[in-house]
Design a protein that fits this description.
Order of helices and strands: EHEHEEHHHHHHHH
Largest sheet: 4 strands, mixed
Helix content: 40-55%
Structural class: alpha+beta
Strand content: 5-15%
Radius of gyration: 17 Å
Shape: globular
Strand order of the largest sheet: 2-1-3-4
């Protein structure tokens, strides 16, 4: 069976994307959890992942002899190997838009990702207020996300970014959790979209399992010393 190597569900936003995509699309896979201990070269995490992925990061998809690392490459591979699941929009123009939106997430929003790390279990609303006050880059990233999501929802009528669930929604699901964790203010239509994403069975399953982990990984906790 296809295997997906992931990190801790509470923290690993990149792992969340293909996991949610496969769960929501009904693609069977075996989860291989590689828990974060440290990012040192001698860590158990690195010893497990480096033989599969020379960059030493998760997620990694192993399908027989084929190994795919990098989240966007995994999503493209899944779309190619499961065309019946319609992971990209069928319309060519919408498909191009969806790929562009995913690429923007893949390469951009650096301030939001750096200052508002994924932490599903935590309540960091106070920290979010300070981050928005002090970090112009986070404010700019949030404004861009609101414009992007708002434009796509208006153009395609919802309930997801391109009408039906697609890779784009899986790609932005971790951003939805970040906005909620840090209490970042967004307009009502964007908040409603976040509610719909978080209620998707695949997303809810990830969140429920993240909350059940009960693990505190200090290297992933820039704002707390303990739970």
């Amino acid at each position: 069976m296809t295997q997906l190597y992931i990190g801790n569900k509470n923290y690993s936003s990149w792992s969340m994307r293909p996991w949610v995509l496969m769960k929501q699309a009904g693609i069977a896979f075996e989860e291989v959890m590689v828990r974060f201990d440290s990012m040192g070269a001698d860590s158990k995490f690195k010893h497990t992942i480096l033989p599969l992925n020379p960059t030493g990061t998760v997620p990694v998809l192993k399908d027989g002899d084929i190994v795919v690392y990098d989240t966007l490459a995994i999503c493209e591979y899944l779309a190619e190997t499961h065309p019946d699941r319609k992971l990209w929009p069928a319309d060519r123009a919408r498909r191009a838009q969806a790929r562009s939106a995913c690429a923007e997430m893949h390469a951009g929003f650096g301030s939001l990702r750096s200052h508002c790390t994924m932490n599903i279990e935590a309540d960091l609303r106070q920290q979010g207020q300070l981050i928005l006050r002090d970090q112009a880059g986070v404010r700019a990233d949030l404004e861009r996300i609101v414009r992007l999501w708002g434009g796509l929802l208006e153009a395609h009528g919802g309930p997801m970014l391109f009408g039906e669930f697609s890779i784009a929604d899986a790609y932005y699901a971790p951003v939805c959790t970040r906005i909620r964790t840090f209490g970042l203010p967004v307009p009502a239509p964007i908040s409603a979209y976040i509610d719909r994403v978080l209620a998707l069975p695949g997303v809810k399953a990830w969140i429920d399992e993240a909350l059940a982990e009960k693990e505190f990984v200090l290297i992933d906790e820039p704002y707390r010393l303990t739970r």
